[in-house]
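User: What would this chain look like folded?
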Amino acid sequence: MRAFSIVFLFVVPVLLASCGKDSSTSTDIISQKTEYIETAEQQLSEIESLVNQSDFTGERKVVDLPAGSVNGLQAAIEEAGPNGIVNVKSGLHIEDVTVNVNFTVQIIGEEGAVIESNYPAMLDSVVVTPVIRIENSDFVHVKNIQFVAGTESGEGNVGVLVYNAGYAYIKDNDFQGYQMAVLVDDSEFTFIEDNTGNGLFSKGYGLSNGSIGICTLGDTNTRIKNNYMAGFGTGYFASGSYGIYHGNTAEGGETGFFYCTGAFGVLPDGTPIAASESANNWIGISNLAKNTGIGHLIIDGVNNCKLINNSAENCALYDVEFVGPTLRFGTPEPLPTSFENLFIDDPNTDIEVKDCGIDNVIEGGQLVNTAEDPCF
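Assistant: Here's the prediction, encoded as structure tokens.
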């Protein structure tokens, strides 16, 4: 599935294991595949238990944020206090300034709860001005809220930022018209589950100006499960170590799942939002990329990641690409190659894989012939 008129170009050497495999090799691959799936499912179950744990034994304070509130969420959080609960009542709530969360609290929307924000998106740069900023706090929950961009253009900045925090739980939210739905930086064990989002790719926003559904930078052990992100430049962006993608869907845009290193904008005080290491030791299982340029892209030194049973539909350039050294992004020196990653899919699937990395292992799918379609 290749159309070289695509404006963005991403690529990868082919590691062809021999076509003739003995039964012990096949058995070993099946065993590996089962092991990684079971490991991921166990860790997802564990994180769900962890984010819901609490050492708080006193009475929780519950505060209602009534419909029609204007810049009221911050005060409701302060009133609820540590380990409290804010019920965002059904209806429209306006937030013109970032809501800062610096202690453990649950922010839970009733059915029909909508928060409208008024920080605009930025084509030339990204000053990260989220609706909700979780920082220096653990076990914060944000659940069941629709976030909509209320700027005149309908183009919003960032929905939820998790920054230097642990065990945040972002679940069942819907993000409409944002440059980024969820951005995670320098945090551990963030769990992002069952969210939906619709981005700004149709309005000219791509990866280069931070159009990403769920973006994880400089973090470890992020768990991202059963989300649906459509219309972003990139649906999901991974860096850092030991994360899990499981059962997510990306639709439209340049790239579905982007494993890389990256930097996307700055905080209002000028602090950069950037990854310190390429994605490594991630597990991606049963994720779907559809109607994108490249479905699953592995680039810039990404290593020891396992991609198991993923799929791609109607991708214009490649379904899966492991990239070698490349100058495709205009860097002064070539980006480093991907290496020692593992791809496993059923041998009879039509998912196409282009491998230009080093010591990647490709089992199943349909390998692109790099003699006919060279690495670049």
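The domain at 23-53+60-367 is CATH 2.160.20 (Pectate Lyase C-like). If you want, I can go into more detail on any region.
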